[in-house]
Amino acid sequence: MRKIVFILMGVLLFSISVLVTGGQEAKAATDYGSQFFTHVEMQNKNGVASTDFKENDRVKVVYNWELTQAVHSGETMTIPLPEQLKYVSFAPFLLKDDSGNTVATAIVDPINNKIILTFTTFVDTHIDIKGSMFFYADFNKNNIVTDQSNSIAFPLAGDYTTLDIMIHKVGNGGGGTVTPTVVFKQGRIDTKDSSLINWTVTLNNALEDINDAYYSDIMGAGQSLYGPVKLKYRDADKKELYTRTENVVLDSKRSFRLELGDLIDTSVVITYQTKMAGGQFSYKNTAKIGGSNIEEQTRNATVNDYSGGGEGEGSGNNPPPVEPPIVTPDPPVATKPPVTPEPSTEPIVVIPEVSTMIDGDNELQIYVVKKGDTLPSIAKKFETTTEQLKIWNKLPSSEVYVGQKLIVKVTPRKGAIQEKETSNPPAMKILPQTGDTTDSLVTIIGTFLTLTSIGFLARKK
User: Fold this and answer.
1) What confidence tens digit (pLDDT) does each residue in 73-119 have?
2) What would the DSSP string read from start to end of 200-233?
3) Cα–Cα distance measured from residue 10 to residue 381, given in angstroms and rounded to the nearest whole number
4) Which residues make Cβ contacts (< 8 Å) with residue 441, sequence separation at least 6?
5) 454 pLDDT exceeds 60?
6) What is the largest CA-CA distance in the chain?
7) Quick check: 128 and 115 in contact, CB under 8 A?
8) Among 64, 294, 340, 370, which one is least packed by beta carbons within 10 Å?
């Protein structure tokens, strides 16, 4: 009996809720599809409307639109991409008026191949709203037929309109091999962050002997250096020898310079990123390589930003100004007097300027490079030569950086075997420079940490 009563009460409550709400359901924001788009055309690289292209041309698709009824913020317009095309950029973009107000935001959906425009509050405060939109596309070679007209259907005015586009096949060209170069540079917009450009510079693919080689880079306007510069040295077979990273700063001419050392049967690949400020289509950088025995050679590279864009406009119909909310200040909070921390009783461990470690039959002294140090000044300090330091540390040039660990002295161990004392000393094993990932480097670091720990424990006792 009690179970029946509970069931009847549930039915009664449900009926009351239906009567109170009038049976209404929450409605999703309206999507108008292509209803308000009035015109579409394809443009060539010169920005001229055309129906004649080559299969490898990059085209600009331009739409015009105009609102014929009142819409609200949050409502959308969605248009799919014809199957004969594929997007060049998936970066979102904005449609703004002349005053910089955003009329709509555009999202490119690469999975479903469509663009979704979402109206902002601009449409709630203006009337007679219209605008345009553009995006770049390449031809999808799997869905076109070359050397004849292709009917491409674009969504328009709630339906579709067909453009007959002639697409010509491109020949293979003369073929042949590419001559190795001394300097080559190229850039590409990052696939994950469309505001970044990834630059790659290849130096001395021709494998010339370049003494005291250097690289300089001049950055074009509208971009700023983003992160460090990475260098990878390669042998004649393009296998990696070692890498290094540089934190560089642009000078007054928007350039930076890197010393590469002697390049003998060696090439170098330099990579770095720049961040685009936006507002321009092309971004240019210049690469230069030189040396004491060659003339400076230059290569320019340009990256175009193929993100979409657009604009909008409307007559003002602004609502009355919103009164600022009244803010009640929080009551004052009593503060406690600062507590002076008690002095620590733990001993302070000071890492020595020079550490000593054992490598086979030799005792090595390791020095950590400090600000203001140069390789000649370090050599003078430890009564050796720069060339000897280069050999011990396998340095390609005289350039050092703060924090780098250098071998500055090698002394035979007193406990070496007597036979080795009376014979010619064996050739010392060349240790890898900082940055190499070899077992020897792991051993050196482990020994250094062990010595530091022993010093710490001895002082604590």
Assistant:
1) 999 999 999 999 999 888 888 999 998 899 999 999 988 999 999 99
2) EEEE-TT---EEEEEEEEEEPTTEEEEEEEEEEE
3) 91
4) 431, 432, 434
5) no
6) 110
7) no
8) 340
